[in-house]
Design brief:
mainly alpha, homodimer, Neurolysin, domain 3
Amino acid sequence: MGTQYDALVARLRDIHNLNMASSLLGWDQQTQMPAGGVEARASQLATLSKLSHEMFTSDETGQLLEDAAKEVGDDYDSDAASMVRVVQEDYDESTKLPTEWVTEFTELTSKADSIWVKARQDADFSQFQGTLERIVEMVRQKTELLGYDDHPYTALLNQYERGITTTQVKQIFDDHKPGLIDLIAGITENADQVDDSILRRPYNVDKQRDFGLKMIEAYGFDFNRGYQAISVHPFCTHFSSNDVRITTRFESNFLNPALFGMMHEAGHGMYEQGIGQNLEGTPLASGTSLGVHESQSRMWENLVGRSKGFWSWALPQLKETFPHLESVDLNTFYKAINKSAPSFIRVEADEVNYNLHIILRFEIEMDLITGDLAVKDAPEAWNTKFEEFFGIIPTDDAKGVLQDVHWSYGIQGYFPTYALGNLLSVQYYNKAVEAHPNIPSDIANGKFDTLLTWLNENIHQHGRKFTSDELTQKITGESIQSRDYLDYLTTKYSDIYGL
Amino acid sequence: MGTQYDALVARLRDIHNLNMASSLLGWDQQTQMPAGGVEARASQLATLSKLSHEMFTSDETGQLLEDAAKEVGDDYDSDAASMVRVVQEDYDESTKLPTEWVTEFTELTSKADSIWVKARQDADFSQFQGTLERIVEMVRQKTELLGYDDHPYTALLNQYERGITTTQVKQIFDDHKPGLIDLIAGITENADQVDDSILRRPYNVDKQRDFGLKMIEAYGFDFNRGYQAISVHPFCTHFSSNDVRITTRFESNFLNPALFGMMHEAGHGMYEQGIGQNLEGTPLASGTSLGVHESQSRMWENLVGRSKGFWSWALPQLKETFPHLESVDLNTFYKAINKSAPSFIRVEADEVNYNLHIILRFEIEMDLITGDLAVKDAPEAWNTKFEEFFGIIPTDDAKGVLQDVHWSYGIQGYFPTYALGNLLSVQYYNKAVEAHPNIPSDIANGKFDTLLTWLNENIHQHGRKFTSDELTQKITGESIQSRDYLDYLTTKYSDIYGL
């Protein structure tokens, strides 16, 4: 490649390294940092973010992009052409945000995190209200700085799912909302078909951890290039495709959160570990969108981890770890882990209810951004909508409006990608099985590399070279749709609940 | 203060934050990072180090220093005058090292760390030899770049103990070497006076950790502004005076390494936690020299933690944690933890033998730098000197030349500061007791704040405002000397061994 392209890549590597350092500061803040460190950490993150933003949005980067574009040729799929194309889009987006705004926002959201942790602990929204008001104000500024066509919220969506519009998302949500509501109604009438009490009893946390680690190692999460820790809200981050971190939240009286949480984060982690080494140290070395990322976590959590085939292999091992399960048969266990019922906490919601949790957040976020809803009224709006959607009201704000870390991060517009990920997980999985019909039977034999290799080849290796829609078109021949997901849910839950 | 001074401080804060981020990347590498992360981490550290070095050594910083100097007045002790004075010295030192050299050295030593860990594990110096050869070569370049008067090694010493010369250090070492040798001879003749077998038996690691944490919390290490983790080689680092980290290495069959190691690192940690908040986020917010730093760790480890008074308070608690100690009396325990005998590992060496370990390294480092000794011959030179000094030969390189992490870090010139710290620990402690004669009886009652407050006021709060010698003159009215240390050792060990 030409000398300007090489100079561009060298510059992007320094910027990438600053961003990876920021990610590590964030990881440490969630997993080890003492409370006293919060002020200094905010200042450190502000410096790194400022320097990275200054370097990236500088005229020098703009000029290198322009010059490198002339060197990379017109092979759309090549690493070099993709680098210039994708980074040019990043550059156009980033140059819209002034350095001062980015610095202030980073400092604000860094401090907000500890405030949110405390507020959630105390189930007291008022501790967080002032901070959230300032965040919403700055996010609103962001929509104006970034620009949008149909709705200010589109500016936020596009940060996580490039090219998608609020209108589109609303349409996709509307497409499957009635089907979900019908399915939930059917399940509610047959609620007595499933009993999950065996999962809700004391489970030794160390043993939960050991078993979960064994499962995700079997999946293919590479611990030579990965690490697991504990945090309040589970997440996955990476500082290289060869250094991928996941966290887990354990509950001592319920098996599901940690076990399926580990499978979920491992799904994210294996995506990052699968990025081609040719992209290492570049801005393309990451999952392409949050929706595609979530398709991977949900696939390993639900389509694999909550399948009957998987547990025909894993249940005997779980029984060895927890002998009190000895008398539980496969079908009872399979139904228990797939019990569906409205609940307060999104991260614990089952597959059927999950997307409704997202639609609630989507609607509230839109109203906060337009100003139709004041921050101080968010808890009430949350609870009102919750009753309307699920027929129950959160018992306190920790189980309601305070449950998610996202708003303290200032990443409004992120939530919809969870629902898009659910849809994509089934679209992709169906194609994988079409290519390799033995995948389900492999899973039932504890063999996961057929699926993982297909994902590596078709999705992971490409990093950010292709957008979510380009990838989905390549793989499935169509764009994201809700048909496959609703079919999957209907078939699975009709069987479980005898609908 | 003036606008140029404020601009200087703002610029220094960004540089400081880059350096603190580097420290966190280093901490993570030692405590959590998976093996696969090593290449990416080296690249990240190289970027941060390059940017920090570029920003600090830029003409802009030089100009700000020059302009700020006109604004700060001539009150030598003021924060502002100290800032400009000390940072000007840093600047003069740093501008001598070209950015390319610093980047290459950082990348080299970052990779060297993992290679050293593996070589030490396998007790195989040949795995590390090539890397060390390159490090020594670059360190030699460094001495020429930095410049020196009496000996190239002085250039290295001055990085850790500003203003001291190789000639001086050699003199101070020569001053107390004969006294140490006499004392060791006396102890060796009376070796049967002390039996430490009660310390060398299984000690549950979790209980060791719990007890150690209780002790250092009693000392005054603030866990709201501090955190402890596990690593191969114990160390202390900080990202703010409000975010101080220490690590511990546990042995399941010997009580001393973790217990006294925690006291030692807590001594370092309390120094950092005691830095004045007025200096937070500035380059003065750190201990002033490695020698003074070590005086704090050694004081809490030895003068407090290995005193009979301390254990008159702590032994009953240790007996609760480890009931098999129930029948051990105070005097037996006190003698056991102070057993003195030649041993291979510096970090396990007792107070009497310790400085000889340093003198060995001092001599080998000087010969490596001058080229009188080739790297490939270092293991043999080490073992030859070891026999000469201690009468025993290390059984393998892990117990010899490979035992310390320092050379892989490229911090040749660092070792002598350990011995200087031992000397200063007694000089300072004697002054503290002169000011507050109740300190020994307070310690015997588990009350440590009299000593800690004195240290906070006389040493900690000043950060890097004063050099080691300025501080020692202020506190003791003289420079560093070995008289107090030798007196202390002679009195203490004559009692223990009945000399």
